[in-house]
Structure formats: C-alpha cells, structure tokens
Amino acid sequence: MVTESRAGWPDRTAAAPPVWLDPSFSDLLHRHPVLGAIRTYLPPSPASVFPGQAVIDTLPSSYADRGYGLLFYALVRALLPKSCVEIGLFRGYSLLMAAAALRDNGVGAIAGYDLFEDYPYRHAQRAQVAQQIVDSGLAAWVTLRQADVHAVHEHCGGVDYLHVDVSNTGETYRAVFEHWAPKVSQVILLEGGSRERDNVDWMLQYGKPAIGPVLADLRRDYPEWSISVLEPFPSLTVALKTPAAGGRASS
C-alpha cells in the first residue's frame, strides 16, 4: 500500500510549531552530534529556504503542517548522500524536498517508487508527479519508477538514504529493516512511530499492528542502527547507522 489514504487522520487547521522546535528533535541531535550541521539549513519557523520551494509547498502532504519537508531538505544537505530511494510518493512532496537538497549539494540522485494507477485507493497519477518534477526544475536529480513498493529492495543495491511512507504499520517497519538494513549506509526514514500515529482511525479500524512495540524489537535486533522518533504528527522514525557499523555501501 502507498500513503494516499489519509482518512481518519486528525484534522489540524491551526498553525503548529515546526518539528525542529520539538523536544524530540533536540533529543535526536543530542544523540547524534554528526547531525549538528542540520540546523544550518533550518529557519526559526517554516519559510522559504531554497530556490523553487514555493512550487513544492503547494503539494498536499501530511508532512507539510509541521515543516517535515524542510527537515528532509536539511537532512540531505547535512548528510550529503549520493544514492537515495523514496518508496511511496503520493504527489511527490518529500521526494522533491530531498531532490532540491541534492541539487544544492551538487551531488547525488534520488529514485522514487510508487504504484500510482495500480493502487486501488486514493493515488496520484504518474504523469502528474512527473510533470511536478519538471515544474520544480528537478528532473536531473530524480528518477520516477512505477513498481510494487514491497519488492523495490529486490532491484536496488546499496543506497545511502531511504525514506518509506507506504501507509506504514509495524509490519512495514519489520519488512523495511529486514530487506534494507544491510543495504543502507546512512539513514532510514519511516513515516510514523509516535503513539498518536499508532492510534489513527484506519490503524484501529483495520487492526493494523502498531509501530511503537516494534521499535523496541528493532533496537534490540539491529544494534548497528540508532533509532529515534520525532513526535509531531504524523511523526517520523529516524534510524542512523552508527559509525562502528562499517563504511559506506556501494552505490
């Protein structure tokens, strides 16, 4: 499944502070001093940071309310990944935020995977997303692919940066780490992880396994990964490979 279905998510109409002003973000930086440079790319409040951002900001995304788009941009600027993959695109908001950072870094590319028209529920058209990439001036940094999002790992070698947003559940998290932990050299980002996100209507209605309990298992089973959760809804799990876990995977 991809992340197009948003039914049952909390309605937030009032402006809220950006994720980088939340205590969970401060905790992330405390645990990972290597991310200190990320603040260089984050404004005091959501604002225009890079050329072309205004176009991307018009795209619908659950990430937009708390400034997660700029967080993706800042993470890519700070980590300087070369090979990036995003799975589950909807209209391309987070994909294009990462692509803009690659452009501004002057190195790297990102491949975006989605089911598009093959997904039976709410989805974006592949041609629509492709046009948005062109309109944003980022076509040189993005490859768009239509594929079974649960089988992408079978077609990818080593990557530096992975972002997964496919109506995530605890099962999604387990599968991502099983298939991708050996392939990713720097960071794995997964939508969700907070208690609030585990209790959205569609997770409860369809009996989906919660993410929170799975995080404890992943921390135990994958000690080479340091796993943190940024709490503002929809929340974001940030898994960083520790330096002792080895060098960069081949791209």
Biggest sheet features = 7 strands, mixed
The CATH class is identified as Alpha Beta
Annotated CATH architecture: 3-Layer(aba) Sandwich
Q: What is the tally of helical segments?
A: 9
Q: Sketch the topology as an H/E string, one letter per element.
A: HHHEHEHEEHEHHHEE
**Average pLDDT figure:** 90
Q: Strand arrangement, largest sheet?
A: 3-2-1-4-5-7-6
Structural class: alpha/beta
CATH homologous superfamily label: Vaccinia Virus protein VP39
Total domain modules:
1
Report a brief summary of the structure.
The protein has 9 helices and 7 strands. The protein is an alpha/beta fold. The longest helix is centred in the middle third of the chain and has 13 residues, at 93-105.
Task: Give a written overview of the molecule.
Strands 3-2-1-4-5-7-6 form a seven-stranded mixed beta sheet, with helices on both faces. With 251 residues, it is α/β, with parallel strands linked by helices. The two termini are 27 Å apart. It contains nine helices and seven strands, in the order H-H-H-E-H-E-H-E-E-H-E-H-H-H-E-E. The longest helix has 13 residues, at 93-105. The chain has one domain: Vaccinia Virus protein VP39 (Rossmann fold, 3-Layer(aba) Sandwich), CATH 3.40.50.150.
